[in-house]
Design goal:
51% of the residues are buried. The chain is α/β, with parallel strands linked by helices and 420 residues long. The strands form 2 sheets. Strands 9-8-7-6-10-11-12 form a 7-stranded mixed beta sheet, with helices on both faces. The longest helix has 26 residues. It has 14 helices and 12 strands. The protein has 2 domains: 172 residues, Rossmann fold (3-Layer(aba) Sandwich), CATH 3.40.50; 148 residues, NAD(P)-binding Rossmann-like Domain (Rossmann fold, 3-Layer(aba) Sandwich). The mean pLDDT is 94.
Length: 420
């Protein structure tokens, strides 16, 4: 094993330790294990951007391909002050396992720009996005690497990326990114896909545990595209959503929150805080509220060694990437908590991204009902397969999911061999 210090970050150390544990359980060929520890390629770019006041700000951006053994790479693009090479590399590796678990013909990739999008104007974001796209253009393409939105990016970001790429090709290329606006070749159901996928995974997990979701108390950390959609769907199914938080803080009502009214409040007030009839709670307190199901759908490392023993939920469905640290994982496992890991629970986004890519390549678009039916089928199949591995191997769902993802990628490496 060589030095990987240039990729060093908390998340990178976590994913490498996960890989090493799984490799030992799979008795993985040492040569393939060594190849899996490194990204195939990593590009670091500077992004000079003209700001509104006329000065030029230089941002640092990244695009990392973990492996291309199953097909072109796929992965999000995040705009956040915490972005660094280690984090992006770790997320690309997690994308490899996620795509393999779901049976998609992709390797994992991830991109990021170290910036604070909330302090930038629309014009500044557009200038930066277009320049970033131009800088990484040699790495992206519909049969090469297909970016998608992530933390701090959205449909508009993807529209600018697609336009920039298309301008250099002299033709419109919708398949270069996913998560685009519908009118530009986006897919019906894409925005809700991750939240919807979490709910489908929870259905199956509850079924395996001989439970039902109706009447269960649910707490959701994060009320954006992921947490907000999951909360609404679970509420519609008769679950009691008792606690919700966003960046500003959280709210709690043990008798359940009316999600439709809460959405109207958020549209007006800009956040969940101050919702009538609910108590204010901090994000820390939210995770420890009495509930049956907890969905951390905000940012990473929220459930840690210092608070894992106070989490009261029996089921945790990870909406965010890496919300549980390895130390917390061990505590939750010993306590008998069922953790549906991020690589499985939040894979709905990449599944519908795949549908969007296929539709873009064919210039033929599906109805939303077809998309949700196919998403439910793929999510349910993946969860049931992983549950079967966990039962057979006597392990937790995260280890079982990673065993399935790593095994599939390793098998492809073995069949393809080493070039030259």
């Amino acid at each position: 094993m060589h030095d990987t210090s240039e990729f060093d970050s908390e998340l990178f150390r976590t994913v490498i330790s996960q890989l090493d544990t799984v490799a030992a359980r799979l008795s993985l060929d040492v040569n393939i294990h060594e190849r899996l520890r490194y990204p195939r390629r990593a590009l670091v770019v500077s992004i000079p951007t003209r700001m509104d006041d006329g000065h030029t700000e230089v941002f640092i951006g990244y695009r990392v391909h973990h492996n291309t053994v199953l097909g072109p790479t796929k992965g999000g693009l995040r705009y956040h002050m915490g972005v660094n090479l280690g984090e992006v590399t770790a997320l690309a590796m997690l994308m490899s396992w996620k795509c393999a678990i779901m049976g998609l013909p992709y390797g994992g990739a991830k991109g990021g720009v170290r910036c604070n999008p909330s302090t930038m104007s629309r014009a500044e974001l557009e200038h930066m996005t277009r320049r970033y796209t131009a800088e990484i253009i040699l790495l992206i393409g519909p049969d090469l690497d297909i970016p998608a939105p992530d933390l701090g990016t959205d449909e508009q970001t993807m529209a600018w990326m697609m336009d920039t790429y298309s301008m250099t090709q002299g033709k419109t290329v919708p398949g270069v990114v996913t998560g685009k606006p519908l009118i530009l070749g986006g897919s019906a159901g894409r925005r809700e896909a991750t939240g919807r996928g979490i709910v489908y995974a929870l259905y199956q997990a509850a079924r395996h545990l001989s439970q039902e979701l109706k009447g269960r108390r649910v707490v959701v950390q994060g009320f954006g595209n992921v947490g907000g959609v999951a909360a609404r769907l679970l509420w519609r199914e008769g679950a009691l959503v008792v606690g919700i938080s966003d960046v500003q803080g959280g709210i709690y009502n043990p008798n359940g929150l009316d999600i439709r009214q809460l959405e109207a409040h958020v549209a007006e007030a800009g956040g969940v805080a101050g919702f009538p009839g609910a108590d204010a709670v901090s994000n820390t307190e939210l995770l420890e509220l009495p509930c049956d199901v907890l969905i951390p759908a905000a940012v990473g490392s929220q459930i840690r060694q210092d608070n894992a023993d106070r989490v009261k939920a029996a089921i945790i469905a990870e909406g965010a990437n890496g919300p549980t640290t390895p130390e917390a994982d061990a505590i939750l496992r010993d306590r008998g908590v069922t953790v549906i890991p991020d690589v499985l629970a939040n894979a709905g986004g990449v599944v519908v991204s795949y549908f969007e890519w296929v539709q873009g390549l064919q210039y033929y678009f599906w109805r939303e009902s077809e998309i949700t039916a196919r998403l439910q089928e793929i999510m349910s199949r993946a969860l049931n397969r992983v549950w079967g591995i966990a039962t057979k191997e006597g392990t937790d769902l995260r280890t079982a999911a990673l065993m399935e993802g790593v095994r599939r990628v390793a098998e492809a490496f073995k069949l393809r061999g080493l070039y030259p």
